[in-house]
User: Fold D-glycerate dehydrogenase from Nostoc flagelliforme FACHB-838.
Amino acid sequence: MLQAKVFVTRRLPIELEPLRSLATVEVWPERQPPPYEILLEKVKEIDGLLCLLTDQIDRQLIDSGKLKVISQMAVGYDNIDITAATTRQIPVGNTPGVLTDATADFAWALLMAAARRVVEADRFTRAGLWQTWEPDLLLGPNVTGATLGIVGFGRIGQAIARRAKGFEMQILYTSRQRCSPELEQSLGVEFATLEHLLQKSDFVTLHTPSVDDTYHLISDRQFELMKRSAILINTARGNIVDPDSLYRALASCQIAAAIDVTEPEPIPSDSLLLTLDNLIIAPHIGSASRQTRSKMATMAIANLIAGLRGDRLANCVNPEVYN
Ligand code: DGY
Assistant:
């Protein structure tokens, strides 16, 4: 029986019994994340950390402890200094795969809601403004048959494309690596440069990780390339889009957008973005189906247990630690 200690930075939607039988488990009980200073203290006395994307796991924190494993309950891990963890031979786990469909579904929910102005329609109705059927009330573009541009073509980008086929869309994608001709054919997608994709697409949806190369990938110049009627969807990471450029593009009514992620998160209450009707903002809930969140938590616990036991994590973002 291990005498390990672990800290879980938020209550999880599953039972922690398998973990409790192996380790002393402390769960942060608040709705807000533990403050950085508390994490810094905790990390000195624990072997395993289960964290979320709201926890800043930087070099100072990693170097302050004697962690055997860091397990992130998310597929993205841009909140963790992976280089620092790798230097200390600490495996970092994540939860890929299980949230692909939920996130793709939600990106589609945002796309449909923005195109057909569902949120504005709800506000309009509740405000008592629905007086009659009007030929030009709350018009939006067609989704069926439109051109969809997918930026980033990993698991989630491809799941978006599979759904787009049902809407008979022309599908363009851009990514660092072009797919095989077989995959392109089976998904009915065409490779494009980012510039070409932005110029041609009626809908642009972002599915890249947050890395140095994708920081503010969509800024003034990219908005200028887009059709004036384009709709931008972001369910990836907030910092892929420059928020000032987004505001300028939306305020000039150049485009519409629906985003599940912002820079920073949560969006500041005085952000000018909150004043715009042609923007839908959700609070980072792309993966928030009950089944998906439960699978993510189960996977994060499995990674944590493997790390405590000294076994290889099933999903490890820095496998170099095993060399
Ligand atoms: C992730 O997993 O990275 C998502 O952003 C949260 O579900």
The mean pLDDT is 97. The CA atoms of residues 263 and 308 lie 34 Å apart. The two ends are 27 Å apart (CA to CA). The first helix runs from residue 17 to 20.
